[in-house]
Design goal:
By secondary structure, the protein is α/β, with parallel strands linked by helices. The longest helix has 24 residues. It has a seven-stranded parallel β-sheet with strand order 5-3-1-6-7-8-9, with helices on both faces. A six-stranded parallel β-sheet has the order 12-11-10-13-14-15, with helices on both faces. The chain contains 17 helices and 15 strands.
Length: about 375
Amino acid sequence: MRIALFDYRVIPTNPTGGCNLRIAKGLSDSHELTVFAVEFENPAPGRIRWVRIPAPIRPLALLFVVYYVLAPLYYWMHCLRNQAHFDAVLMVESKIAFGDISYAHFCHRAYLKNHWQQSKLGGARGWLRWLDYNLHAFFEPWTYRRVKSIIVPSQGLARELQEEYPYTRGKIHVLPNPVDIDRMRPPEKAREYFRQEFGIHEEDLFLVFTALGQFERKGLPLLLEALTQLKNPRLKLFVVGGEADLVSLYKERIQQMGLEKQVTLVGMQKDVRPYLWAADCFVLPSYYEVFPLVVLEAAAAGLLVVSTPLNGVEEFLKDGENGILVERTATDVARGISSILAMTPPIRQSIQNQLQHDIKNYSTENFVATWSKFFEGGT
């Protein structure tokens, strides 16, 4: 089968792009793939073609518009120049005006309706984010009415799409996102080495929060407020991710809250694993996710997980069995962290063991096999 894949950034550090990267790599032995992307780290240049779309990465609203216009033009030019014909066109959400299959990782209309007010950011950054969400939301109805199939990573997103767009019923298939379990597994003595590297003492409870950006939606303000409520100097938090201007903004906020001795912002990192391997607990008090891959990565790295009951998380994390679920309030986030502090070593180990067992269901091998079955008509 000849498959055209459309996404902005098909790279390992992008959550959706990382999934598409695994799809392309996993299917390239049995299918012909051409990727139409702004950025693409091609895992098999001899088998996968890349058509580069010249669009700016930021701001996202501008990226959406430029890609929406240019991607079809480059697709048609590629087809004419190479006399190519594709059996399936796989796109992400509503990022292009055509395609057979939409791989949805977000319901923008549902988010704007139910969560935007609680997690929005002010200023120019907030306005541009709002514009990007609204552009996607504007094209969602037309896209989802037209496509033959919609692939989503969680039952929660499937419910949201069906509630917002009833005509999607019967089109939706749930294919959970994968995690590279072997890559995330910590090497021997990695915890001791990286804790020493980061200046974390053994008696400290090392928390980690990771996000590419959108700290407000991801719940970082709730986490910071929880730390002020706990007033425990043993708690150390590393915030991984965020562009320089966002990191600068939060450094000022952290100083104003008096947390500069407990919270460290390290910005964007090519490899988050050292921070996960050094940590005791991963915290994600997000307002909205479709399927937070970072939770699976943290679990595969052996961390305890404190999270709000998000799409995808609710299907994986069982409160008290393999993690801690909390409500979207600073007080409840503080309660979840306190419960980790109060755990005895045997209880912590029991939860970690259960988590390691459950994470096996989300292997890359299962992910690729399910996608292969879908393209063969077996889903």
